[in-house]
């Protein structure tokens, strides 16, 4: 993970004054014979399991052979999507027993990630495990060890990290496009029931169609409750709140772009303001993080905000602010805006001096900014965008996963990376529930005292 520090040469925008440039990427795809396919099994065939499988199947040489879920309606849907011959089961161990399966996707609720990922690695399967890698940071090392001793690939599923825009942002940051990083501003405001995790509960749900006891796993025993099953994100027994659902993506991208191991402390506030539907996680969260100076970045702060009641209609943003400009990174665009700091004394403050003193201040003031690089700064805005036919970050994340399997290479987001992103995100929950600041050791990946 260690990489060269940021460049000290003046940064030159390849195009300025509002130009748009198209990004590109070359894929090493091949034609694979039927017996050279990577066979996958899906564990957790819900919403993301389906999107993951679609992305996986968009990579050449990949075939789905099995699916596992605890609700029969989801198994019916899997057969509808991928053929009536698909092997389906409610017991993921039966899927892991199959010798024809090379890799599994783990897209269950968060509280099942660790157990299934570890069992799958021990069974000799490559694993694509959804984010957040773990529900509890203490569980992370078990996946790291299981991956190391298995020698299999384990990739965590913050797919945005593999996007063309993240790759470009990483390059631009390293070249000094925004100078020294001072602030990360991340927000995700949502204005819909679906955005606030009010997912549909199917009319055929019942203790017969849903294996509720298995769903609970190690969580406290409660009576059958379809709301807990189908809207598990709303309960801290199974999910990780907005931190594990949304902050974790931003941490994966941030850590990747600036080669960071993560923050050292966090302070969260927020509350349950609107969705009083039985959930026990907040629908408004604001968390402040401290990143100390390292080889690859200056000391900076990060603001993470999620709001599920956004009266203005919602929206999201991820912006790195630096001493020489700012970079806004989206799914399909990355924009760098470089501006010169205005060092001129302004009329606002000069008003308090006599006309004579104002004149003296104006004629004496220095135009050199405290940051010398500013004096050679080339200003302007440039936007890079993904091409129209871009297959998307999700495709690319799976492409990385399968390439690592075929070439016995490395996952772009391995379990150590996954734990650093999850651990950083989960600090928000710890601080929110304990109502106090919390400290994190990002090297050792441990919460402190
Ligand atoms: N990468 C992303 O952008 C992204 C987006 C959404 C969700 N996710 C992650 O994907 C995971 C699933 O989220 P979702 O929205 O698809 O939830 P979901 O409820 O739609 O699907 C989860 C499925 O897992 C099944 N399940 C539960 N326990 C199981 C077990 N022990 N064995 C087998 N199946 C089990 C459930 O029956 C359900 O169908 C979560 O960890 C979530 O954080 C990632």
How are the elements arranged and paired?
Blueprint: E1 19-22, E2 38-43, H1 47-57, E3 62-68, H2 72-82, E4 87-89, H3 92-97, E5 103-106, H4 113-122, E6 126-129, H5 140-150, E7 154-156, H6 164-174, E8 181-189, H7 212-216, H8 226-230, H9 241-258, E9 265-271, E10 284-291, E11 300-307, E12 315-322, E13 325-329, E14 333-338, H10 347-350, H11 355-364, E15 380-385, H12 393-406, H13 415-434, E16 438-441, E17 446-448
Parallel strand pairs: 1-15, 2-3, 2-5, 3-4, 5-6, 6-7, 8-11
Antiparallel strand pairs: 8-12, 9-10, 9-16, 10-11, 12-13, 13-14, 14-15, 16-17
Helix pairs in contact: 4-5, 5-13, 6-9, 9-13
The structure holds nicotinamide-adenine-dinucleotide.
């Amino acid at each position: 993970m260690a990489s060269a520090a940021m460049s000290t040469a003046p940064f030159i925008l390849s195009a300025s004054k509002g130009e748009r440039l198209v990004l590109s990427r070359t894929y090493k795809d091949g034609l694979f014979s039927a017996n050279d396919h990577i066979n996958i099994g899906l564990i957790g065939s819900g919403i993301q399991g389906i999107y993951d499988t679609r992305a996986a199947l968009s990579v050449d040489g990949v075939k789905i052979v099995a699916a596992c879920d605890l609700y029969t309606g989801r198994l019916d849907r899997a057969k509808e999507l991928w053929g009536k011959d698909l092997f389906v089961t409610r017991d993921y161990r039966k899927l892991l027993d199959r010798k024809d399966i090379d890799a599994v996707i783990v897209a269950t609720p968060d509280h099942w990630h660790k157990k299934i990922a570890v069992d799958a690695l021990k069974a000799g399967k490559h694993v694509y495990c959804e984010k957040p890698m773990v529900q509890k940071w203490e569980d992370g090392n078990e996946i790291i060890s299981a991956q190391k001793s298995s020698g299999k690939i384990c990739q965590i599923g913050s797919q945005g990290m593999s996007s063309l825009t993240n790759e470009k942002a990483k390059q631009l940051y390293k070249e000094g496009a925004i100078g020294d990083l001072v602030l990360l501003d991340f927000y995700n405001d949502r204005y819909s029931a679906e955005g606030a995790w009010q997912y549909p509960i199917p009319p055929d749900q019942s203790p017969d169609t849903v294996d509720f006891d298995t769903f609970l796993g190690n969580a406290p025993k409660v009576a059958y409750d379809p709301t807990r099953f189908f809207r598990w994100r709303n309960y801290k027994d199974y999910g990780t709140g907005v931190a594990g659902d949304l902050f974790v993506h931003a941490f994966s991208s941030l850590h990747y772009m600036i080669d960071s191991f993560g923050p050292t402390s966090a302070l969260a506030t927020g509350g349950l303001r609107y969705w009083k539907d039985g959930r026990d996680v907040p629908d408004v969260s604001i968390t402040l993080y401290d990143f100390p100076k390292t080889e690859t970045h200056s000391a900076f702060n990060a603001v993470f905000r999620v709001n599920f009641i956004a009266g203005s209609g919602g929206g999201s943003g991820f912006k790195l602010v630096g001493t020489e400009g700012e970079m806004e990174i989206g799914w399909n665009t990355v924009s760098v805006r470089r501006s010169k700091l205005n060092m001129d004394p302004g009329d606002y403050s000069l008003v308090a001096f006599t006309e004579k003193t104002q004149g003296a201040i104006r004629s004496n003031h220095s135009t050199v900014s405290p940051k010398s690089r500013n004096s050679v700064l080339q200003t302007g805005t440039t936007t890079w965008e993904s091409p129209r036919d871009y297959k998307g970050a999700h495709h690319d994340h799976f492409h990385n996963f399968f390439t690592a399997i075929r070439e016995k290479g490395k996952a772009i987001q391995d379990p150590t990376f996954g734990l650093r992103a999850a651990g950083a995100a989960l600090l928000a929950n710890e601080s929110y529930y304990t109502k106090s600041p919390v400290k994190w050791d990002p090297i050792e990946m441990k919460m402190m005292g």
